[in-house]
Specification:
Rossmann fold, alpha/beta, five-stranded parallel sheet, globular
Length: 141
Amino acid sequence: MFLECICTLHLPPYSHLPSLNTPRSVLIVDDSPAIRSVVVGVLRQNGYTAYEAESGKAALAEMQLRKAEIGLVLSDVVMPDMDGLTLAQQLRKQMPKLPIILLSMHINEDTHWVTEESNFSFLPKPFETRQLLEAVRSFLG
C-alpha cells in the first residue's frame, strides 16, 4: 500500500527499544476520517490494536479510558479545536514517557520545534505504509 510519500522519517535520538511490557496499542488522532481509517487498517493488519480520535479533545478522553493500554500516540499537527502539539504537551504532562509521533503535511523551516525542542517524533504526510510501520515498530516492536 502506498500513501504517496517521498519524505523521510525523523525519530529523536532517544528512541528506545520496546520492553516486553510495552502495550502494542496505538491511538491515532486525525480530523480526517480517511486518514484515520487507512492508518487504523494498516496497524490492525500488522497485529497492533488501534484506537482513533477525531480531535485533540476526543484523544484526551480516549486516553483517560485507555491510559494503561496505549503505548503510542500518532497525532496530526493541524486540527481544529486543539492542535497536535498542544495535545502532545498535555499528554506528556500526564504520561512523561509516552511516545508521540506528530504527523503533518505542513513542513517548513519551523518544523524543527517538533523534535529539537520537544522530543516528539515527526512523520511527514503523506507517507508510505513501510514508513508508518517502521515508526510504530521503533517504539512498540
